[in-house]
Amino acid sequence: MSFDGACVAVVGAGYTGKRRAHERLTELGARVFILEEPGHWAESLAAEGGVAGWVGTPVTGDPDADARSALAALDEAGLRPDGVLTFWEDAVPTSVRVAAALGLPGNPVEAVDAARSKVRTRETCARLGIPGPRALRVRSLDELYAAAAEIGFPAVVKPEFGASAMGCVKVDRFEDLAGLYTLVRRVVRPEVDGIFRAGSDLLLEEYLDGVEFDVDLVMQDGDSVFSSVSQNWPTNEPSFQETGLHCPPDHGKRVVRRLVDFSVETVRAFGFHTGVLHVEGKATSHGPRVVEVNARLGGTRIDQIVSAVWGVDLIEAQLRSSLGLPQTLKPSRRPRCAVVNALVHAPRSGRLESLPFRDVDPEGELGLELDVDAETGEEVAGPEQVFATVLAELTLSGRDLRRARALAEEVLRDPPVVAPAP
User: Fold this and answer.
1) Check whether domain 337-422 has CATH 1.10.10, yes or no
2) Rounded alpha-carbon distances, angstroms, from residue 413 to 244, 275, 360, 406, 409
3) What CATH number is given for 133-206 in this structure?
4) Which of 55, 95, 175, 285 could form a disulfide with 86 if both were Cys (CB 3.0 to 4.6 A apart)?
5) pLDDT tens string for the chain (422 positions)?
């Protein structure tokens, strides 16, 4: 499918793993121009021919200011895009503002802002009558104590803005609040991750029991024209660091269907009507609940997972949405394979001595992808520090879920070797 050289502005390139998405846009026939702050790795993409161009623009974390800068940079470069999109969580509010200012397709700014802020997500759900956990904004330790007195235990401390469960911790009693507050405050800082330039407030919310799922949706004219569900594995509590997932799910079909329907109802109520959305939700003992709504394509290798299992290209779907083109999805009626995604964390704090992986013969549509995030000799944090260092991420497919799990277990049979800190 060619998009006849459509000019597409991508606001925010994200981490290097997003390179695949940008290059896929180019493969589809779009002329891609990435807007990012000077010195970002994405500047090399244009030089290497992976995209048509790179436009430098400052990034402050204030979406209104960043949108004005992006519009000025586009004007200075003489670019009038046919579509605006992003695959990067930090840039979603800026991207939708740029699209709106140019009169291009996109979701309402109000819907994106309500989803981006976890505090506003809870407030919006309460206003719309959507069942969800009670939550309160927290700006100090005193406010955390006050919130805990009202919310009760177990509860979850999390940042208003964030991703990948950074700064998210389960708390079970008053005595732990001060220590956890200090711990989270060390993480929720712009110096640690640029996503916190948007704000560093926290919230305390009720803990949700049950199994968590990722629901990837393609919306067109207010209807869900495609959905894919991945089943998350139990997290490393008290942190909520992910350990892995598999697709398709093997949970009860009726329960999963209820969660998908609830996710669609929620995004519609927020005002979303187009594009690719990534909803995180739980099938709890009280029914389906939405944990968060992400107004963009899911992270890591979600697009590859969905493509392998269902034969659907979510990157093309997002491109079509940004250009106002109808979707032409033809998902497989049955899963074409099963995919397992597993994260490897440091088993203890100390110095990483080795990170062994075994060879296997991959099966299915995806094969085997291994992303190594740590180097031998690096100092790493173990689970006793709550937020353990992610060492690697494994994604592979098998002819069915049982086989995919077995292959993953074989690859990861030998654990990482970490020498204890002196």
Assistant:
1) no
2) 16, 39, 11, 10, 6
3) 3.30.1490.20
4) 95
5) 568 889 999 999 999 989 999 999 999 999 999 999 999 999 999 889 889 999 999 999 999 999 999 999 999 999 999 999 999 999 999 999 999 999 999 999 999 999 999 999 999 999 999 999 999 999 999 999 999 999 999 999 999 998 888 899 999 999 999 999 999 999 999 999 888 999 999 999 999 999 999 999 999 999 999 999 999 999 989 999 999 999 999 999 999 999 999 999 999 999 999 999 999 999 999 999 999 999 999 988 999 999 999 999 999 999 999 999 999 999 999 999 999 999 999 999 999 999 999 999 888 889 899 999 999 999 999 999 999 999 999 999 999 999 999 999 999 999 999 998 77
CATH of span 209-334: 3.30.470.20
82 in Cβ contact with 243 (< 8 Å):
no
Cβ–Cβ under 8 Å, residues 11 and 74:
no
Total length of the chain: 422
What type of residue sits at position 93? P
The angle formed by the CA atoms of residues 390, 392 and 395, to the nearest 5 degrees, is 125
Buried b (16+ CB within 10 A) or exposed e, 319-338: bbbbbebebebebeeebbbb
Which residues, at least 6 apart from 149, have a Cβ–Cβ distance to it below 8 Å?
none
**182 phi and psi angles, rounded to 5 deg:** -60, -45
The SS3 call for residue 74 is helix
Neighbours of 146 (CB within 10 A): 14
Helix (H) or strand (E) holding 45: helix 43-48
Which amino acid, residue 129?
Answer: G
- Please tell me what DSSP assigns to residue 20: H
Report the topology of domain 7-104: Rossmann fold (3.40.50)
Q: How is the chain split into domains, by residue range? A: 7-104, 133-206, 209-334, 337-422
| Ramachandran assignment for 199, one of left (phi > 0), alpha (psi -120 to 50 degrees), beta (any other) | left
Q: Is-above-0.70 flag for pTM?
A: yes
Give the helix/strand (H/E) hosting 396. Answer: strand 390-398
